[in-house]
Amino acid sequence: MVFMTVKNLIYSLLKTSFSIFLVCFPLLVSGQFKIIDSVAVTNITDMSADRQGNIYLGDKNGNIQKYSGKLEKLEVYSPERKGSIAVLDCWNPLRLFVSYADLQEFLFLDRFMVNANRFDLKKLTPYAGIKAPSVDNNLWFIDYSDFSLKKYNITYDDIIISRPFDLLLNRKDYELSHLREYQNLVFLSDIKSGILVFDNLGNYLYKIEDKGIDSFNFLNDEIYYLVNGNIIKRHLYTGEIMKEKIHLPVEQIIITNNNYFFLTKKWLFSAVKQ
Fold it and tell me: Which of 47, 112, 256, 260 stands the most exposed, by the fewest C-beta atoms within 10 Å?
């Protein structure tokens, strides 16, 4: 009986290892990336990274898991009030931003992922869409009640910028997916048309004409995102474009100076270029 138990255990370990190998194999044979480590995940809705290279995962229950760049688990945040995380922005590790899809609320966490400051937007609009923190510790958000981009001053409880989308987006055919302020610019992705770029006063500047962009991120002077199985890197000021092909069903990607982090439905992989 003991022999059979050990045999079954060995078989189970071999089967698990082989399954992981099958998951990793497409990336390995691509010739571009080498898998360094992996973590099993479930129900992840958003991923972010801070300036120090730590990785954060938010899930459908509002929980946030923090990992080091080596995928060592560091901290876990579990909210008292459950809600699916729509936006997780942890670029500032001292002020983590969290927004919920099913609650008209957002909050800030400190670097220990405690002491949550929670804010309610229902008093401002019947429905606020995607949100993003501004560099001056206020809030950008999409107001669907009048179809506009707005900036909210948290301290004075006041809308200080409002820019309508009427001339920029087709009211009948759009799908706004991600919002972020970076280097005094505001970026808004529309899956149907591309990424709209505004200045820090909300004035429209130009559009990145790539369809199918669900999310995007930044590294130094580049914006990068996934389109049709390619990582697209675009220089913000020269417009230079570089493509990297991946052979894995990746949902989100984060690039730090040393690592690539690939999020699939069941795994978070860390990898380096070969």
Answer: 112
